Amino acid sequence: MAAALAYPNLGFFHVRDHSPIHWHETFHYFMGAKYLPELGYTRMYEGTWAAGRELGAFAQIRQVRDLSTYAPRDVTSIDAAAVRARFTAARWQAFKRDLLVFGPRIGHWDHLLLDHGYNDPPPRAFLLHLLVRWVPASRVTLGVLTSLDYVLVLLAFWAVGRAFGQLAATLTFAFLALSFFARFDFIGGSPLRWDWIAALLVGAAALARGAGTGAGLAFGYAALARIFPALFLVPLVVSWTRARVAGAREAAVTRCLAAAAALGLIVIVVLAINPTTRDLSQEFVTKIEQHNRGVYTNHVGLGSLIVFHNTPWVERPDGTVFAPHEAALAARPAPWVLPAIAAVYFLVALPLILRARPLESMMYAVPLVFLALSPAGYYYSFLVLLVLLPWRADSTDPIRLVGMGVLALLGAAGYALEIMSADLLPLFYRASMQLGLFLLGWLALEYVRLARQPAEAEAPAGLAPER
Which residue, 409, 414, 361, is CA-closest to 386? Predict the structure, then answer.
């Protein structure tokens, strides 16, 4: 209960306006999804500026980000007539009415229009589009929409409680609600930002209960919604392969992987055969390739750590820190470095994966994400898997309890670092460093545990000989 109350900052919500709605994020996810057919992934800021000028706003805006090149673009180069031509008259009027709702509630339009646009993967974007296409923006409708996350998370933890027991569910919920990375300040009050982590939790609960098909559909949805959760299926593939080689049969894991693959294939085929969704999917791929060429201060992982360790920081008079973008780009490691490090980690963790229960083995994909991808900090809500997956029937190994305790201390340290940091760059740089050290220590603890329990390691639960 304390964790649930703490998550929305004890009822103060967002510090700037005390609103339960994160207006900046909701603008991108609501307007980007609702008007996806008209704006695509690259014309959001052009359309917003053109509509705003017709409403008598944005006279002070001089530049927006060109989302096809990521370079700032002078507003005098925007063809407002061409922007309007992509809308029907009714949709253009609806776009302007919706913009009026956001207008007075966002006080930093000059910064917002230099952000990086709407980046939901196509399957998730089209699903959200179907949900909001006919929904007019208002404080009530957006309040309901941004509350769906809480409903999904509560349903997910109901499933977790049934599968893992109330103690495991309670500790996992508390960890997620108090997470430094997935805190309310960053993603709270935004439309469906936690649907993928809820899907991962539901998938874990389903697989723990032997419902392989349900687990596969949940894991498949998480991967389609955010792409990188596909890495959590890698240990399951290893476990399944090991069982087949040993002549054993893992029926639940087989159904899980088959369902996830089938869901992914069906969605990809549906997107490919429809000209509109195919074109938008190609636009997304191009935009994300452009997006991934940049470096971002709020990303957490080994790649981000290497970049900002090798980039000179310039301290401003107000105590904030600036890192020249061109210098940061030049500091990126060679393209082969992170995949090679991730491959080495995979080989080091392989004995642990092979000797773990299939569901339990998914924990070992957590460091893989850190080493290979460096996603934005709020995606590290998946650290909750390190708290949940070791549990069986309300019990777990004492060594793993130590690991959970250290992980909780890591979260507390993140909040302490924020008090001492005047800017996001040193905050997330140090958070990446701390998380990397934790994952190294966690892996060592897992090997200590394995050395102390060789009998269990040789005969993981869930592998039954095929009859």
Answer: 361
Closest-CA residue to 192 (of 22, 12, 37):
22
Domain spans in the chain, listed from the N-terminal domain onward: 2-138, 144-465
Q: What is the pLDDT of residues 96-141, one digit of tens each?
A: 999 999 999 998 999 999 999 999 999 999 999 999 999 999 999 9
Count CB atoms within 10 A of the CB of residue 110: 13
Residue 127 neighbours by CB under 8 Å, 6+ apart: none
| Most confident residue range from 221-225, 241-245, 318-322 | 221-225
pTM above 0.85, yes or no: yes
Q: What is the 3-state composition of the chain as percent helix, strand, coil, each rounded to the nearest 5?
A: 70, 5, 25
Mean pLDDT across 277-290: 95
Give the span between the Cα atoms of 413 and 408, in whole angstroms.
9
Contact (CB, 8 A) for 148 and 190: no
For 400-457, the three-class secondary structure string (H helix, E strand, C coil) is HHHHHHHHHHHHHHHHHHHHHCCCHHHHHHHHHHHHHHHHHHHHHHHHHHHHHCHHHH
Cα–Cα distance, 69 to 178 (Å, whole number): 37
Burial of 165 (0-12, 13-18, 19+ CB in 10 A): middle
Report the C-alpha gap between 33 and 293 in whole angstroms.
24
3-state class of 367 per DSSP?
A: helix
| Phi, psi for residue 25 in degrees, rounded to 5 | -70, -40
Between the alpha carbon of residue 86 and those of residues 73, 177, 432, the distances in Å are 20, 42, 42
H/E element holding 224? helix 212-226
CA–CA separation, 133 vs 36, rounded Å?
A: 9
The angle subtended at Cα 196 by Cα 339 and Cα 145, nearest 5°, is: 140
What whole-number distance in Å separates Cα of residue 332 and Cα of residue 322? 17
Nearest to 172 by CA among 383, 19, 363, 318: 383
46 forms beta bridges with: none
On whether the CB atoms of residues 9 and 189 are closer than 8 A, the answer is: no
Per residue in 424-440, pLDDT tens? 899 999 999 999 999 99
The region that residue 94 occupies, defined by phi over 0 for left and psi between -120 and 50 for alpha, beta otherwise, is alpha
